[in-house]
Specification:
Length: 305
């Protein structure tokens, strides 16, 4: 039987996990706003390259304490490679989308991640989901279609960038579950190296000179992103995923705030309606997962941010 002190310690850990998740999500949203600002002046490749170098400023001390074998002796190398490709595509497509679309519009597509994950996991991981969650998945897809503006820009490149990027993000989350025994530092390092390689390739012929302050901002992008990732990873060790998962929707709130404050963008009624449907469907999926004693997936990496 647990003592009162044990319950207090457990409660404090959960509270700490919630605070870390909220701060991490805020930092991710700030990182996304910084990314939108930077891709207005620099190519996606250049942002990816220098952002990745900035991330290694945070990863460096962690890698110094990690055996080299942990980086190349990895489980399921083909799945690891697929995850790196998907995470890199997700990051690049996110930045390509925010060049043209408001932050909140792009984030609306990414908030559909748990809906995609529920559907994908059924087929790739053999995780059975009942008719209620299938209905929520269908309703969530309707929300995505509404946000896509079928009558106007459903096939526009920016919308496709956001949609394909969010699907890549979701697939990388599912592969993260497949590779759950791989140390987090290994996953993040290979993911960052993938973005670095893509950045070098995409930067050829698309390099713009920068000032010292601009270089600092580009490096800071990677530092903020990697720090946020570590906060969210830690939060998941302190509090149950079922408690933390709904908090990810604060990203959408911050995207609306930052988009309005920094870029003068505010989502229109159609985007807000689609976002509301997606959030409601996602929350229901979290609820049903909790009822069925299945820990929901929380986006605990910054693949797009």
């Amino acid at each position: 039987m647990k003592t009162r002190a044990a319950y207090a310690v457990g409660g404090n850990a959960i509270l700490a996990g919630i605070l870390l998740m909220l701060i991490g999500d805020f930092m991710f949203a700030l990182n996304d706003a910084m990314g939108k600002w930077l891709v207005a002046s620099f190519s996606v490749g250049q942002v990816l390259l220098i952002r990745s170098l900035g991330a290694f400023l945070v990863l460096g001390p962690m890698l110094a304490r990690t055996p080299v074998t942990a980086l190349y002796r990895i489980e399921k190398p083909y799945w690891q490679f697929a995850r790196v490709v998907l995470a890199t595509a997700d990051t690049g497509l996110f930045y390509a989308a925010v060049i043209y679309l408001p932050l909140a519009d792009v984030m609306t597509f990414y908030m559909a991640g748990p809906i995609y994950v529920a559907a994908i996991s059924h087929f790739l991981l053999g995780e059975r989901i009942g008719w209620r969650r299938w209905l929520a998945v269908l309703i969530g897809f309707i929300g995505v279609i509404i946000a896509l503006r079928p009558s106007e820009a459903m096939l526009s490149w920016p919308s496709m960038f956001a949609l394909i990027g969010s699907l890549s993000f979701s697939l990388s989350l599912v592969l993260g579950r497949v590779l759950r025994s791989t140390p987090d530092v290994t996953l993040v390092t290979w993911q960052t190296l993938g973005c670095l390689a893509a950045g070098i390739w995409l930067s050829v012929g698309n390099w713009s000179p920068f000032t010292g302050s601009e270089l600092f901002a580009l490096l800071l992008l990677g530092v903020v992103s990697c720090s946020a990732h570590l906060m969210i990873t830690r939060s998941l060790k302190l509090a149950p995923a079922s408690v933390l998962a709904p908090l990810q929707y604060t990203l959408l709130l911050w995207a609306i705030v930052f988009g309005w404050a920094f870029f003068g963008d505010f989502p229109d009624a159609q985007t807000l309606a689609g976002a509301a449907i997606i959030v409601i469907a996602g929350m229901f999926i979290f609820h049903r997962a909790k009822v069925k004693d299945v820990e929901p997936v929380v986006p605990n990496n910054s693949s797009h941010g």
